[in-house]
Amino acid sequence: MRALFFALFILPLPALAQEPGELALVKKVFAKLQPISIRANREYCGYIGYDRSGKLVASKAWRGGKGTCRARDPDNLVNVVSSYHTHGAFSSRYANEVPSGDDMATDEFEGVNGWVATPGGRLWYIDTQKMVARHVCGIGCLPMDANFLEGDMGPIAPRYQYDQLIDKLMSFGG
User: Fold this and answer.
1) DSSP 165
2) Staple partner for 114: which of 54, 83, 93, 163, CB 3.0–4.6 Å?
3) 76-99 burial: b if 16+ Cβ within 10 Å, else e
4) What is the residue range of the signal peptide feature (predicted)?
């Protein structure tokens, strides 16, 4: 009986990696946003969460700069569960096929997980409880930049812990 009590009330419960339906919603958001982001060569960002009726929805997307984006507080969400943002157009000067350390740190600071779309059409999920970025789907999974050069950043791992991600970015020169 003590073991059952310990297991039920003392051990931490595993956190849900993402909300049900979140991946489908994110892919839909990025399907619209990626071409705009690539054409403008700007990041776009926003949030995913629940509206007043309890429906999982996306906030308005905000236009950022070439390497940064700051979304405003979402008026339509009462409970934010994750952020989302694009990485703009392809450039061999930027390590934009993986999330940045700032992407991960900002999501952690805000207390949300995150989604990142890359110019190569990759989709990444940032789990801020574990501080790991996980490759959800590969090149061309989302709309991609026609100028994208596969292999520009060297091999891309299927997941990166925060420190591994920083090492990857430093080895690229960014």
Assistant:
1) H
2) 83
3) ebeebbbbbbbbbbbbeebbbbbb
4) 1-17
pLDDT tens string 84-127: 999 999 999 888 999 999 999 999 999 999 999 999 999 999 99
Residues 121-150 as b or e (16 or more Cβ within 10 Å = b):
bbbbbbbbeebbbbbbeeeebbbbbeebee
User: In 52-128, where do the E strands start and end?
Assistant: 56-58, 62-63, 79-86, 113-117, 123-127
How far is the C-alpha of 123 from the C-alpha of 34, rounded, in Å?
11
How many residues would you count in the chain? 174
Across the range 52-56, mean pLDDT stands at 96
Tokens representing 38 are 């690539």
The conformation of residue 17, written as its DSSP 8-state character, comes to S
Q: How far apart are CA 6 and CA 98, in angstroms?
A: 40
